[in-house]
């Protein structure tokens, strides 16, 4: 295996091997494992010569034998040159394929199809890993390292775009009620990694909420904040997630009880809608 690894190294790839042995009072055991991550075809290597040196040492009642083994292999240079050329051509094709996936992703981004663009970029990354070369085409030279950086940057940009959300909230009652619900909804969404903004949002959340007195217990008024909150993908105008809102608030003052219910509703509904949006994004990527 060491000889094969030398050939493999010459061809620009690698073969790894390991040898383990241990002894007991009754018998000696040896196990050898060989693992190859070579993509080259090492065919035609010829064993020219071999010899070994035996070493023996005493360890208590055991005689431990060790063999140093030497082998000489030959491998055709013309075959090696063909294999090296094949490997280079294979790498070149991988770089060109990754470049085409970059172009496809950029086109999808222009059409605001960010999830599909992300999938295109994800397919390109494995093609470039471990490559360091410049692939020449009829029209340009493509640096694999620069290409990898560009694709990684586009993926980060899409992640940032996918985090942008705008909100439209309608809460029956005083403006204070809307402010409380909105503030807590934003807080929950931000905590889940989303950015609430009106600048080129990717998703829109629409909420219609009302409050009503539902009881009186332990000297506290009980109010219920109920309604519906939904999310839509703006590029397709499709609803991708909905959440039914139902949260109670308690306080000895009526108005504060209603505000408490809206505070709880904003936090719980925001967390739930955020999780559903993330699930929807993953589903759309898998579908793409």
Outline the structure in words:
The protein has three domains: 2-75, no CATH class; 81-161, Methane Monooxygenase Hydroxylase, Chain G, domain 1, CATH 1.20.58; 164-282, Lipoprotein like domain (Double Stranded RNA Binding Domain, 2-Layer Sandwich), CATH 3.30.160.150. It contains six helices and eleven strands. The two termini are 44 Å apart. It is elongated and about 95 Å long. Helix 2 (77-110) runs antiparallel to helix 3, helix 3 (114-128) runs antiparallel to helix 4 and helix 5 runs parallel beside helix 6. It has 288 residues and is α+β, with helices and mostly antiparallel strands. A five-stranded mixed β-sheet has the order 8-7-9-10-11, covered by helices on one side. It has a two-stranded antiparallel sheet with strand order 1-2. 44% of the residues lie in helices and 36% in strands. Residues 14-40 and 283-288 have low confidence and may be disordered.
Write the layout of secondary structure elements.
Elements: H1 2-11, E1 15-23, E2 28-36, E3 46-59, E4 62-74, H2 77-110, H3 114-128, E5 134-136, E6 141-143, H4 144-161, E7 164-171, H5 175-191, E8 195-196, E9 203-217, E10 220-233, E11 238-251, H6 254-287
Parallel strand pairs: 7-8, 7-9
Antiparallel strand pairs: 1-2, 3-4, 5-6, 9-10, 10-11
Structural class: alpha+beta
Order of helices and strands: HEEEEHHEEHEHEEEEH
Shape, principal axes of CA atoms: elongated
The total count of helices amounts to: 6
Number of domains: 3
As laid out across the biggest beta sheet, the strand order is 8-7-9-10-11
Architecture of the largest domain, according to CATH? 2-Layer Sandwich
